[in-house]
Amino acid sequence: MSEHAEAKATAPLFNPLSPDFIRDPYPHYDLLRRVDPVHITPHGMYLVSRHAEVSGVVRDKRFGKDFVERSTRRYGPKIMDEPIFRSMSHWMLQQDPPDHTRLRGLVVKAFTARRVEDMRPRIQEIVDQTLDRVIPNGHMDLIEDFAFRLPVTIICDMLGIPEEHREVFYTGSRDGGRILDPVPLSPQEIANGNATYMMSQMYFQQLFELRRKQPGDDLTTQLVQAEEDGSKLTNEELTSNIILLFGAGHETTVNLIGNGLLALHRNPDQLALLKAKPELITNAIEEFLRYDSSVQMTGRVALEDIDDLAGKKIPKGESVLCLLGSANRDPAVYPDSPDRLDITRPNVRPLSFGGGIHFCLGAQLARIEAEVAISTLLRRLPELRLDDAENPEWRPTFVLRGLKRLPASW
Hints:
This protein is an alpha+beta fold. It is built from 19 helices and 12 strands. Helices cover 51% and strands 10% of the residues. The longest helix is centred in the middle third of the chain and has 32 residues, at 235-266.
């Protein structure tokens, strides 16, 4: 056996922060699905890679979040003294009922199908303004100059963040994704997370004060009023969930647009087809979500002993990591070349937005933003080409999969 083959044979099945994995996780998922579909990681977590088990776990009430217990088991009891972990423990994303039900109930009205569809003209306006600004230059970074501005503007609109405060959000760092990765954080990464959280907390506390004095027709005003009501929301829950909504409201959409544009330009036949038949855009977005999901994993905890998950027993309290990106390419569900991009693929039902009670609130908003952004870009810049489609620079995070930059010219 050659040295290279030997190294490959002894390499761990799951090493999500290795450069090779970050560049292309899908061959690694393929191996997991075939060799060990419920794999125990070096950190003692159960890794689920097939569609049947992933879709089952995210909907099964025997699995929950139990964030505090999960974090203290991993880092020790003092971890909840860290501001970033304390904040995350209040995220509705990390809560079980009844707290999850209460928190989600306060924001769900802002994301109804009708309210989201009503945002379409505003989304179109932002995309056109963004393109008006960059088109004369002949080049741009599709992430920073295009994909990033749209969802940040929309979530700022929804939260009632004043125009004069927004520039700092357009130029802000996108380094927060590591906090969600299943590989434990270093003390330095925790310190960085704390610093980012404290800055966000300071800003949003000022925004709450502004909305108490000057209520608006926005989500922050709604939540501030719920907090004043006392029984519905504490100040800590208000702050944590606004920060969650801000991050979740743009991060995954940036990646959906970026990953989708990269996939199209790496598959020129699909790019040509979408230009020729723009009406395929809605199905194309579902295929982008399936093909290279901007969220690769979601976690649960066994709330009781699970006797049989694909032949494995899961003891109560153990963490189960559901690989959404792997489930989306499972040949058991997509028998026709799951590793191929096909914007006409029938019955695409990606798990990219999770499932069960934690199904992403902003799923429809993200779809519409991506639809308008990508179709407008192809219509207005048909000659656009990527400067380096073969070796793009990925962000060094696993759960949130996205590009650092994507330079393009026309």
